[in-house]
């Protein structure tokens, strides 16, 4: 479909991304297949009216003959769309702009009267139906019309009934509303044997419809796609804002860190051991890279009349190149020259840096994010829903390094302050103290979300067969009969042993001892390996998530682990959001963070945790005092602006960008580092560099130039440009700097991520 000019504009990457609401409101499509019901007034209304709705609709539930009779009137889906016959049936109360169906509404007068007055059902494609899904029944995969959304409220939810929407798998809960984008591919099925599943399904106008906008808060909607071939930039339909960005202050702050001073050379205070974080050569060079990028940005955006010697930029590039060489192949002999040159640059520029005010930068608004409330509600009442239907309070309490009585007291305080999500692990050796605090808090078990980890089997320190015994001890220590999430603590074991471990994890789900499975400290490769063997897929990922390391300790370049997890229906929870571990930079004292905290009148910790929440990432801050626990829980009475979110997102590029490449490539270059890092080689007249780390799609054959390759590698860029320039039908050239290969194309409407130092050049 994306080879067609019209659909080439869509953001789809696979079949589960296809949706037709994107055609009408490009910004809202970024929300995904499941919407937050708290922003939908109709959802709140129907949940409040659930008792009366259920009482009336039970009349149809209790009379199968009447239900079947009414379902055959106005039916459009019975037959080939569902299987077997009678497995899925719907009583239509109203379809499209038609009248509310008289016979069904005679039986359900209050339901019809309530819905018929709602402005959300005033447009085409709106309607309502009572749907019965029987054990063994299924509604086959299909796409719904646009623009519209669907609201489901279960009148009777059976444990075997499920629905998938896009890449999300959901289960209904009696009395609770689900809001879905029905223009994604979706289906329903019932694998249970207990009884029928009854759901009131309401199809309502899309919130981005002009007639609906007054009913909702701020939404990123965008303009409808006007015509085939009309290019849409990432920020074309979004506003921008200007913020002060303290690059100079950040460089001076980072260079003054005490742990960095310990690493002026490799010594006892800075040993060549990075296993446990803290001062070591790798962490020191990561910090120097952050300093160099802040220097680059300060020079690029300065309004000062003082001239900076161009050789300074060359020297900065040499430092960053030396850093990359060391990280690629650590050699103690390389370390001292890099640190010495970096220190000399800072010493020379310190007077100039002290005179620099923050740069005023304009930030494009990011794509729509998961709505997070800012109404002051209790921290335990806002939840993210895992893709298997389990509700997870978005704000939790972490217990790493909490021990003994201190652990008991802090967990008890957290529960008394309204937190309902507790995270621990086998390795923390504090589950007994947590279990005692849970007991003494008197919070009902069903109100809690308890997450813990299997450490010894995950790391190969115990055989997979011991897992059931280990989890039995954890359940006993935590004083609970089940866990809400049980996860592998790290990607340790592999191959057949990983399969054995995961089969035993799945068995815990089958036994009812675990509600959902997850993993921690997994990268994309480990996730893909696990995904290929898992019968019960993990729905939860707990990884590092801080402004410098957004999802992994070593960030991937082509795709973020956040995006991978989201595309596979996994909810992510971030740890170490405010800690320096495992490197030296301390987020709580970074001038970039403090600038935003001051503007919001909040603490740096609150800003950082709110930033994660607005990314749809759960947070589990740890604290050892009631004051800090209270501070870290007060995240739902303010919000960060789009510009502030973009500025914090951009700190990963200051951490990761090298002398010749803006990284990570999946983060937007909000600070203009690509221009500051480009060190172009020779260029043939008539070409302009379009992008890096991307290549043109090679199908169909017609996109290739007459001579599309020089054959083999080892070519220089000038040779490749000359070959393209000699062909009238060559409009684009992809040169791979690391291998010397090059490919030539007539057109390049679609690109794919590429390695080997790919540079895409457009012929002028």
From TrEMBL:
Which parts of the chain span the membrane according to its record?
Answer: none
Where's the Aspartyl/asparaginy/proline hydroxylase domain?
Answer: 48-207
Which top-level group of life is the source organism from?
Answer: Eukaryota
CDD domains hit by this protein: AKR_AKR1-5-like
NADP-dependent oxidoreductase domain location, by residue? 395-651
Alphabetically, the GO molecular function entries are: oxidoreductase activity
The family note in this entry says: Belongs to the aspartyl/asparaginyl beta-hydroxylase family.
Name of the protein: NADP-dependent oxidoreductase domain-containing protein
- Specify the species: Cladocopium goreaui
Lineage at the top is: Eukaryota, Sar, Alveolata, Dinophyceae, Suessiales
């Amino acid at each position: 479909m994306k080879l067609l000019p019209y659909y080439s504009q869509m953001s789809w990457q696979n079949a589960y991304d296809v949706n037709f609401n994107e055609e009408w409101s490009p910004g809202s499509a970024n929300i995904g297949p499941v919407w937050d019901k708290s922003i939908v007034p109709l959802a709140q209304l129907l949940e409040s009216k659930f008792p009366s709705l259920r009482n009336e609709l039970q009349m149809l539930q209790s009379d199968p003959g009447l239900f079947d009779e009414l379902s055959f009137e106005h039916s459009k889906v019975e037959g080939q769309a569902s299987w077997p016959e009678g497995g899925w049936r719907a009583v239509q109360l109203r379809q499209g702009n038609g009248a509310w169906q008289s016979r069904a509404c005679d039986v359900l007068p209050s339901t019809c009267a309530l819905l018929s007055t709602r402005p959300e059902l005033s447009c085409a494609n709106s309607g309502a139906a009572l749907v019965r899904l029987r054990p063994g029944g299924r509604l086959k995969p299909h796409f719904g019309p646009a623009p519209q959304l669907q609201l489901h409220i279960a009148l009777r939810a059976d444990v075997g009934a499920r629905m998938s929407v896009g890449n999300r798998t959901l289960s209904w809960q009696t009395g609770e509303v689900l809001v879905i984008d029905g223009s994604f591919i979706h289906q329903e099925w019932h694998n249970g044997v207990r009884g029928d599943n009854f759901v009131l399904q309401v199809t309502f106008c899309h919130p981005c419809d002009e007639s609906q906008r007054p009913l909702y808060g701020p939404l990123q909607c965008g303009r409808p796609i006007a015509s085939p071939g009309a290019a849409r930039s990432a920020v074309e339909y979004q506003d921008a804002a200007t913020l002060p960005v303290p690059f100079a202050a950040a460089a001076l702050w980072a260079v003054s860190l005490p742990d960095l001073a310990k690493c002026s050379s490799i010594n006892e205070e800075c040993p060549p051991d990075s296993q446990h974080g803290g001062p070591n050569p790798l962490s020191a060079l990561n910090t120097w890279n952050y300093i160099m990028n802040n220097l680059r940005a300060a020079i690029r955006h300065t309004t000062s009349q003082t001239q900076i010697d161009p050789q300074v930029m060359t020297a900065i590039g040499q430092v960053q190149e030396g850093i990359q060489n060391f990280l690629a192949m650590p050699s103690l002999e390389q370390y001292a020259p890099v640190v010495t040159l970096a220190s000399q640059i800072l010493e020379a520029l310190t007077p100039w840096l002290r005179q620099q005010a923050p740069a005023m930068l304009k930030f494009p608004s990011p794509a729509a994010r998961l709505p997070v409330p800012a109404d002051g509600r209790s921290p335990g009442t806002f939840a993210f829903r895992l893709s298997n239907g389990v509700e997870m309070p978005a704000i939790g309490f972490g217990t790493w390094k909490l021990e003994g009585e201190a652990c008991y007291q802090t967990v008890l305080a957290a529960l008394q302050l309204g937190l309902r999500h507790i995270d621990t692990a086998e390795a923390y050796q504090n589950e007994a103290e947590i279990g005692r605090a849970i007991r003494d808090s008197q919070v009902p078990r069903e109100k809690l979300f308890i997450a813990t980890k299997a450490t010894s089997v995950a790391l190969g320190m115990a055989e997979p067969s011991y897992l059931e015994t280990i989890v039995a001890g954890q359940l006993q220590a935590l004083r609970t009969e089940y866990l809400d999430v049980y996860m592998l603590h790290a990607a340790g074991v592999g191959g057949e042993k990983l399969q054995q471990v995961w089969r035993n994890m799945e068995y815990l789900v089958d036994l009812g001892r675990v509600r959902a499975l997850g993993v921690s400290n997994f990268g994309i490769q480990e996730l893909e390996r696990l995904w290929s063997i898992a019968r019960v897929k993990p729905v939860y990922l707990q990884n590092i998530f801080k402004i410098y390391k957004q999802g992994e300790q070593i960030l991937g370049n082509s795709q973020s682990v956040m995006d991978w997890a989201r595309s596979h229906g996994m909810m992510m929870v971030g740890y170490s959001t405010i800690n320096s571990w495992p490197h030296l930079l301390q987020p709580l004292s970074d001038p970039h963070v403090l600038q935003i905290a001051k503007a919001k009148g909040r603490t740096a910790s609150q800003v950082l945790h709110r930033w994660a929440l607005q990314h749809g990432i759960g947070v589990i801050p740890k604290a050892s005092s009631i004051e800090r626990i209270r501070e870290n829980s007060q995240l739902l009475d303010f919000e960060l602006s789009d510009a502030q979110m973009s500025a914090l997102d951009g700190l990963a590029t200051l951490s990761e960008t090298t002398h010749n490449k803006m990284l990570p490539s999946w983060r937007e270059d909000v600070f203009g580092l690509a221009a500051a890092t480009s060190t172009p080689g020779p260029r043939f007249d008539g070409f302009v560099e379009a992008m890096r780390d991307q290549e043109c799609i090679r199908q169909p054959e017609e996109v290739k130039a007459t001579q599309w390759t020089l054959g083999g590698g080892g070519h220089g860029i000038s040779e490749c440009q000359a070959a393209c320039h000699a062909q009238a039908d060559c409009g684009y050239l992809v040169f791979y700097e690391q291998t010397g290969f090059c490919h030539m194309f007539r057109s390049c409407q679609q690109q794919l991520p590429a390695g080997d130092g790919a540079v895409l050049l457009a012929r002028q």
